[in-house]
Amino acid sequence: MTGPDATHDANNGSNGQRSNDNGSNGAVLTAAPPKPAAPRKTAPPPSKWKRSTKIALAVIAVVTLLEGAAFAGSYFLDTSKFVSTSNAQVDGDKVDINAPATGSLMNWTVTNGTAVHKNQILGWIKGVGGGGQAQHSIKSPGNGTVAINNAVNGEVVSAGTELATAYNFNDIYVTARIADTDIRDVHVGKQVDISVDASPKTPVTGIVEEIQNSAAGQFTIYPSPDTTPSNPQKVDQYVPVKIAFTYSGTAPLYPGQNVTVHIHKN
Q: Are 192 and 207 in contact (CB under 8 A)?
C-alpha cells in the first residue's frame, strides 16, 4: 500500500511498537531518594571565662598561696622564738573594801577614781534591828585608786559585801596564763613584748618576774586523747606568770585591760 494511508499505518505501527516497548518495562520508574544531608558543623560554645578573668583568678590563687606560705613561715618563726598568748590582762594588787557589818550604808562618798589610803574612813554602816543600832566605820585596808564601785549610799548591805575595789596604780603588772605544755620555755628574767588591745600601736615591754608553782584548770569541750566514759572532757591547764612593766610609753594602763604577750625564749 502506497500513499497517505500507508504512511499512517506505518506511523501507527511504530507508535504501537513504542507502546509495547514501554509496556515491556514493567514497574513504574520512581525518583531515587535524596541523600541525607551531611551534619552541619557548629562552632564550639564560647568559653565561660574571659581571658582577663582567668588571669585575675590565677593571680588571686598565687597571692593566696603566697600569703599562706608567709603566714606559715611567720608562725614558725614566732613559735620558735616566743611563747605567746592573748590570755593575759593588766593586773595589780587589789585593795578590797568590804562592809564590816550588816546594815544601811551611810556617808558613802567613794566613786571610781577616788584615791584611798590605809585606815581611811570611807563611810559608815548603821546597824539594823533593836538596841542602839551601832554604827560601824568602813576603813580602807590599803592604798590605791578605786577602779570598781559597787555601793550606793543608803542601801542595805550584808557583812562582808564587797563595796569597792581599789588598785595601787604604781604597782600594776600583767598576769599571763601560759599553757602547761609551753611553760618549760618560760624563765624568770626573760624579756616580754606586750601589745595592749586599747593601744595596739604603742610599744610596751616587760620582764618575767614570777612563775607560779600551781596551775589553774579550765574545762574544754574537746575530749582528751585518754577520754574515759566517766571523764569525757579535757582539762586545759594554765600556769599564771607575773610580768612587770619595763616600758609603757604613752599607753594608758589600768587593771582589767586585755593584752597579748610574746615572751622571749632566748
A: yes
How many C-beta atoms surround the C-beta of residue 164 within 10 A? 25
Cell matching residue 177:
596564763
Residues 87 and 198 in one domain: yes
Cα radius of gyration rounded to whole Å, the chain: 49
C-alpha cell at 67: 600569703
Q: Is residue 193 part of a domain?
A: yes
Q: Which of these, 79, 57, 247, 257, lies nearest to 167 by C-alpha position?
A: 257
**Same domain for 208 and 87:** yes
Name residue 51's amino acid. Answer: R
Give me the amino acid identity at 239.
V
Q: Decide if 245 contacts 204 (C-beta within 8 A).
A: yes
For residues 135 and 108, is the Cβ–Cβ distance under 8 A? no
What are the two backbone dihedrals, phi and then psi, of residue 8, each rounded to the nearest 5 degrees?
-60, -45
Question: What digits encode the pLDDT tens for the residues 15-30?
Answer: 444 444 444 444 455 5
Q: Residue 195 domain-assigned?
A: yes
- Give me the half-sphere count of Cα atoms (radius 13 Å) on the Cβ side of residue 126: 10
Among 172, 188, 198, 193, CA closest to 85? 193
What number of other Cβ atoms are within 10 A of residue 254's Cβ? 13
* Chain-centre distance for alpha carbon 65: 21
- Cell numbers placing 134: 551601832
Give 146-185 pLDDT, tens digit per residue. Answer: 989 999 999 999 999 999 999 988 889 999 999 989 999 9
For the chain, which ranges sit under pLDDT 50?
1-27, 220-224, 227
Q: Is residue 45 part of a domain?
A: no
The single-letter DSSP state of residue 19 is H
